[in-house]
Amino acid sequence: MKIESVASSEKKPCAVCNRKTYSYKIYEQSNITIEIPACDTESRNCLQKIDVKDMAAFAIKVIKKDIREDAQ
Fold this sequence. Notes:
Strand order of the largest sheet: 1-2-3
Oligomer: single chain
Number of domains: 1
Radius of gyration: 14 Å
Shape: elongated
Helix content: 25-40%
Number of helices: 1
Structural class: alpha+beta
Number of strands: 3
């Protein structure tokens, strides 16, 4: 699994504290990329608190549910 921390020109709400941030944590594996916005400042370090396994598992459940609903 490839893990990166990058800055973007687009501000999005932090996945942990919901404040607007330019920082992202990116996970890449098997042609799947997950970008998670997270604060990375001296006062807030939400990047270290991100658990990609939990977030990815939740996202997969939501996607599967949407697929099932669309199929009906």
